[in-house]
Structures are given as C-alpha cells and as structure tokens.
Amino acid sequence: MALTGRAALLAALGSIPVGLLEPSWTGMLAVNGPIALACALDCALAAPVRGLVLARSGDTSVRLGEPADVHLTLTNPSGRKLRARVRDAWPPSSWLPGTETAASRHEVVVPAGERRRLTTRLLPTRRGDRQADRVTIRSYGPLGLWARQRSQASPWTVRVLPPFTSRKHLPSRLARLRELDGRTSLLTRGEGTEFDSLRDYVPGDDTRSIDWRATARQNKVAVRTWRPERDRHILICLDTGRTSAGRVGDAPRLDSAMDAALLLAALATRAGDRVDLLAHDRRPRAQVQGRSAADTLPSFVNAMATLEPELVETDARTLVSTVLRSAPRRSLVVLLTSLDAAPIEEGLLPVLPRLTQRHTVLLASVADPHVAAMTSARGSVDAVYEAAAGTQTQSQRRRTADQLSRHGVHVVDATPDTLAPALADAYLALKAAGRL
Question: How far apart are CA 269 and CA 74, in angstroms?
C-alpha cells in the first residue's frame, strides 16, 4: 500500500507521540485535523487491490510493423467501487520510442462485483517474443487523497514475426511461373524435365522428342511436350553468423535474407516444390522440414521470428555436413550468406566441392547500396578516398563471386530492396533451363 501527497506526511506524523513534536507541528496537526479525517475516510472507501483478478486475451502474434491489441480484464470482487490507474508494463521495444506512457497507462472505474476490459495496443519495433511484465494498479478513494498500490504478474506473450515486405513481388513471379509450367496460353513446349502431353509432329520439332510407341499406335508421328519438373526439393540455408549482424540501412543483413527466403518459399510451394529451412552458424539454430505446402510459409515465419545473429564465425564444414544430411537426394541448396572474401575463401570454398557434386547451389548475398554511392563520390580528397574504397570493395565482391561461379555456384548479389525479387528470378531461370 502506498500513500500519496499530504496523506503520506500525515500518516508519518501520526506515528510520532504528540509530546515529541515542536509546537509548530502540533499546531499544524490541529489545523489539518479535518484533512486527516478526510484521508482516513478516503482510505476506508478506497477499493482493496489485493483481491483483484486479472485475465489476459488478445493477439498472440503480429507481423513486425503492425499493431497488436492485448486485452486485460480487471475483475473487482470487493464491495467497494474501484477507481484506479493501471500501468500495463511491457518491454521498451513493444512500442515506438516516446509512445509507451500513453499506450501503457489506463484510467478505469469498476463497480463492486463487476469487471472491465482494458486494451493495450502494442507496436513492436523488433522481431521475437515480447512478454508482458507486471501490472501495477493504484486504487484511489473517492476524494483522491489516498491510494493503495500493488503490482502483480499477468503473463502474456506476443510473437513478433518477420514483416515479409517482399510479398508484393509474388503476383508477378507467379504469373511467370504459370508461363513456365503450362497453366497459361504460353505453354512451354519441347524444353523441360517433366512429361506434359503428346501432340502431332510438325516440321522443326526436335526428333529426340518423338514418342515411337505412340507413333506406332496412332500411325502418325507423335512428339512429347515437357514442362519444368514439379516436386523438387529446395533447402534454404540462413547464415546466422557474425556477418549476418552487419546492418545495411535500418536492418541487419539477416532480416533482408529472411525476407528473400520467404518470397522464395512462397513461390516454390506454388510451383509444387518441397521447401525446407535451415538456420546455422556453428550449430543449427532453427530447422523446418517435411511440411505440407499450406504449412510451409507459416512454419518458416514462426521459426524465423526468434532468430538473432550470433557474433561467432560460421562453421562452413559443419554447415555443409548438416546440409548433406538434410538433403540426401539432389536438391537446390540456397545459401543466404555474405560475399565477404575472408569467410568465403577460408570457410566455404574448401568444402564447397562436397556440396556442388551432389546439389545445385545458389548463393545470395545482401549488398550495401552505400558502397555503390561511394564509388561516384568526387569533389574533395575525402570523397576520392571514399570512391577508391567503394571501388575496391565492389571489385573484391566480384572476384569472390567469380570464384564461386567457377565451382558451379549461381550467385545473386543485390541490395536489400532487390534481393528477394532477384533470388526469385534466379529460381525461375533455373526452372526454365531445366536445372531443377
């Protein structure tokens, strides 16, 4: 129980024998006697806070950047009316800076034996689980001179999911996918890996597509048509090591990689392919395997929500071993990692042949747009040095990409805004070429 204002002073003085008080204090007490009586009456009429019952409901998950409403139901079982101020405490990252006070504090009046529901609107600024802290209730008397206060736990967790901002690119990529697999009038004929149908031979058709058994049955030349093969396996690997912690713009590289992985997963499941996820640095941090097409994307989003970069060097040898165990058959392995020279040359390149011998490998990396801007800087000595540094960085990335290409790796190097659609385009290009 906490006292406020003059009530605290009077209560403290009330515990001191009158004979020990100075004459001025005793005079003040005589003058403030009515106030002391009012405080005592206010105390008697203030609703107790110990018996209050709290219950939670509302949103349990939300995409980053979107609001979540969490409801707190306050039940007053006492025989007195509750006039209270309530603070619903959450971690600071649950709101935009400067908005916590207005969002977390509520004024409420609950008549005896009734309940009221308070709504706290969260607007998280980081991914992960946000857990409610204590609820502090300050119960006032009808005169507002006295207050009882108590804090108690009321657990609730809101999982903040990746925002998936690249989903705006999905309709255009799905249209291209339909062109590839024959679901539109632009049916791909002749090239592909999965049998589609038979048709009559026309001059110019590849003779290797002739179906001789169908030709014998029909007494006319029939050729096979093909479409890109479905039900292929794709393993998306997120590098969660130290290089993924580097910020490009307002977000870590890992967040941009997640966004690209989600667009690829959404596109590949629509294409009929099976998609798995592995997040790894020195050990696996998250893994999603064997999910149905409808459950793949929700499982990916849920697994990514709590992932954070680890400030350790990624163990490429362990990563490749985990990939080979997770994908025993030929698959498309998509590595979302850095193109920095040292981690690639010292870590990945020595073990890369083990991976490329069995799988098709596609490596995607987040490029910093500020580096490209640096290369065009001129006008001062500092600007020229910046341009030289930017050009050197770009040259190193190109050399690293060339080294990977010589090992048969397809490389996508794009800025955060363009990485997701560029990765989706690379996947469609491999489909069109019959590489999947």
Answer: 45
Instruction: Give the residue from 430, 431, 234 showing the smallest Cα distance to 331.
Output: 234
Three-class SS of residue 238? strand
Helical H segments across 329-380, by residue range: 341-342, 352-356, 369-375
Strand pairing report for 251-252 and 247-248: antiparallel
The label of the residue with tokens 């165990």 reads 325
Identity of the residue numbered 55: A
- At residue 57, what are phi and psi to the nearest 5 degrees? -160, 175
Q: What token pair was written down for 221?
A: 């030349």
The interaxial angle of helices 253-270 and 170-181, nearest 10 deg, is 40
Tokens 């119960």 appear where? 139
Nearest Cα residue to 5 out of 45, 38, 50, 51: 38
pLDDT, tens digit, 9 for 90 and up, residues 5-42: 444 444 444 443 433 334 444 444 455 667 777 777 77
pLDDT digit string, tens, across residues 347-376: 999 999 999 999 999 999 999 888 888 888
Cα R_g (the chain), whole angstroms: 33
Task: Mark 118-143 as b/e (b = at least 16 C-beta within 10 Å).
Answer: bebbbbbeebbebebbebbbbbbbee
DSSP-derived letter for residue 347 is I
Closest CA to 160 of 265, 56, 239, 68: 68
The Cα–Cα gap between 427 and 252 comes to 24
Query: Whole-angstrom Cα distance, residue 362 to residue 190?
Result: 26
Give the tokens for residue 332. Answer: 């498309």
Give me 87's structure tokens.
């603070």
Give whole-number Cα distances, 50 to 7, 77, 94, 116, 136, in Å.
21, 10, 28, 17, 11
